[in-house]
Design brief:
The complex is a heterodimer.
Chain A: E1 6-17, E2 20-31, E3 35-39, H1 46-53, E4 63-71, E5 74-75, H2 83-89, E6 90-93, H3 104-114, H4 121-131, H5 135-138, H6 151-163, E7 169-173, H7 181-194, E8 199-203, H8 207-213, E9 216-222, E10 228-235, H9 236-241, H10 246-252
Parallel strand pairs in A: 3-8, 3-9, 6-7, 7-8
Antiparallel strand pairs in A: 1-2, 1-4, 4-5, 9-10
Helix pairs in contact in A: 3-4, 3-6, 4-6, 6-7
Chain B: H1 7-47, H2 53-57, H3 70-101, H4 106-118, H5 123-137, H6 144-168, H7 172-180, H8 185-213, H9 217-221, H10 242-250, H11 255-291
Helix pairs in contact in B: 1-11, 3-6, 3-8, 3-10, 4-6, 5-6, 6-8, 7-8, 8-11, 10-11
Classes of the chains: A alpha/beta, B mainly alpha.
């Protein structure tokens, strides 16, 4: 593996929603231009961990973070860092496709526009739609409502919307859980091609998906206090064939979860 | 018939029951419609003959055949324009603050409870408040502005509550999507929340304005004039409004004044419908633009 420097790194990361501890002492290193999958049973803190990377948890009243999240060596929770800047550089795709009730064009142009990028909007939008593998399907109806697209197309639009900002990282929170198998396959192909340029972190509870698409896999579980902890982390091929931890083995062989 | 269960007969009973309820609901709907039709027919029969250009362009008079509602019509237009101008931004601003910015603490809940209670306060109470606060304390006198501010206070709770409902109905996933693209809170409000919520906000404003335009009580409390023989030319002028003029005519014994009152009601209804139509056109145009 060339270029093995850390893109994202967490050190002793803890997360609280009010008094409830959602994450405990998570330390992991996510490499550049790889797909890293976070798997684990429901409620184990996968999505909470993902939302720490672009500070989306800040939007939940009462949330509190301990430890560090380093992005290219800089703590995104440092007092001088604005979450807006973090989100500008780290994109996110959600579980359910959430296009805005605007035109396809305006959806993709939204990110550049709010961040003050006004030049070459047309080219940016077209480029993003190409990379999102959606251009051919929508090039004749860019100014039609995004709500008319199918679920799979909407999700690819949301990916394209993220790509329009040329982020360094794309976080994906169960991006295929609302899609049919065919649309899922398209998104997975897209992820593989995007991984040549971008660092992708995907939360999924579909283990086959993690095994199919990811280079690295992290397995998480709730500890006895219901806080999410990282059980095992390593190359996907190793984690799925030679898990070191008994709990990982039980989970991937389908004994629970 | 399985196990001797009389399905067919029971089905008949169920269907009859359904039909009875359907008819009852239809009847309930017709009560309102019927009353409205009777009202309109009655008013038209009484007043339509008196509704002419002379009526619209004359000042009030002791002689019914010379009397008109020019000053009241313009007074209403002035007061409603200022009421809309004041209450829309303050109402929507309050709703945005409470829904998008305010932390969920005791202060927020206190404000919310107050707004909900204020929506139920009788309009005469707002009139008395307007009299002591705007007319006297702020020394605005019995002016168009004082009247508009009084009606603004009365309309605000309704507008705020409707705007809050509209803002709350914007899916959270749209907000999160915008935040994740690096939008600031104001950009989320401006580009995501407001376009989706605006139709609902406008509907609430229409309702509040429709109520305000027909209010005589608070205007009487701040002593809007009855005999006014000039059109207000600035917000500090004295004024009268249509409901007061109508009320004045209705309370006279001569029959001709009853006809004038009916004609006045027709004018009031036309102004009201015009305002609603304008707001609905505005709303539909906005909806189309955002859904394209």
């Amino acid at each position: 593996m060339e270029n093995n420097t850390a893109c994202l790194e967490t050190n002793g990361l803890g997360l609280w929603y009010g008094k409830f501890q959602a994450l405990r002492d998570v330390s992991m290193t996510i490499p550049h231009r790889r797909i890293t999958a976070i798997i684990g049973p429901s409620g184990c803190g996968k999505s909470s961990l993902l939302r720490c990377f672009n500070r989306m948890n800040d939007l939940i009243p009462g949330s509190k973070v301990k430890g560090e999240v380093l992005f290219d060596g800089r703590n995104v929770y440092a007092p001088d860092v604005d979450p807006t800047e973090v989100r500008y550089r780290i994109g996110m795709v959600f579980q359910k496709p959430n296009p805005f009730p605007k035109s396809i064009f305006d959806n993709v142009a939204f990110g550049p526009r709010v961040n003050g990028i006004t030049d070459n909007i047309e080219e940016r939008v077209e480029g993003a739609l190409h990379r999102g593998a959606l251009w051919e399907e929508v090039k004749d109806r860019l100014h039609k409502s995004a709500m008319e697209l199918s679920g799979g197309q909407q999700q690819r639009l949301c990916i394209a919307r993220t790509l329009a900002l040329e982020p360094e990282v794309i976080l994906m929170d169960e991006p295929c859980s609302a899609l049919d198998p065919q649309a899922t396959l398209k998104i997975e192909d897209l992820m593989r091609s995007l991984a040549e340029e971008y660092t992708i972190v995907i939360v999924t509870h579909n283990m086959q998906q993690a095994a199919r698409v990811s280079d690295m896999s992290a397995f998480m579980m709730m500890d006895p206090d219901r806080a999410g902890t990282l059980v095992e982390y390593g190359p996907t091929s190793t984690l799925f064939t030679l898990p070191k931890d008994k709990r990982t083995e039980d989970y991937i062989t389908g004994r629970f979860g | 018939m399985r196990n001797g269960f009389p399905f067919k007969r029971r089905l008949k009973v169920r269907q009859v029951k359904g039909g009875v309820f359907r008819t009852m609901f239809l009847a309930a709907t017709l009560v309102g419609t019927f009353v409205l039709i009777v009202l309109i027919v009655d008013v038209l029969r009484d007043g339509a003959g008196w509704l002419d250009w002379q009526f619209l362009t004359s000042y009030p008079s002791r002689r019914p055949e010379e009397a008109g509602l020019l000053s009241a019509l313009f007074g209403t237009l002035w007061v409603m324009a200022f009421t809309a101008l004041l209450s829309f931004p303050v109402g929507i601003g309050t709703a945005i603050y409470l829904e998008e910015y305010a932390p969920d603490n005791r202060l927020r809940r206190l404000i919310q409870t107050n707004i909900n209670n204020l929506a139920g306060v009788p309009s005469i109470v707002y009139g008395l408040l307007g009299l002591s606060l705007f007319v006297q304390a702020l020394a605005l006198g019995r002016s168009v502005l004082a009247g508009a501010m009084t009606l603004t206070l009365m309309s605000l709770p309704v507008i705020i509550i409707a705007a809050q409902e509209a803002i709350r109905s914007v899916p959270e996933s749209h907000r999160l999507g915008a935040f994740a693209l690096g939008a600031t809170r104001w950009q989320v409000v401006r580009n995501i929340v407001l376009p989706s919520a605006l139709p609902g906000v406008l509907t609430g404003t229409i309702l509040a304005m429709s109520r305000a335009i027909g209010e005589a009580a608070p205007m009487i409390a701040i002593s809007a004039l009855v005999y006014l023989t000039f059109i207000p030319t600035n917000p500090m002028d004295r004024f009268t409004v249509l409901p007061i003029q109508i009320f004045n005519w209705v309370s006279r014994p001569q029959e001709d004044f009853q006809h004038l009152a009916a004609a006045g009601i027709i004018v009031l209804l036309i102004v009201l419908l015009g305002m609603n139509a304008a707001a609905i056109i505005l709303r539909n145009r906005y909806q189309q633009r955002t859904e394209e």
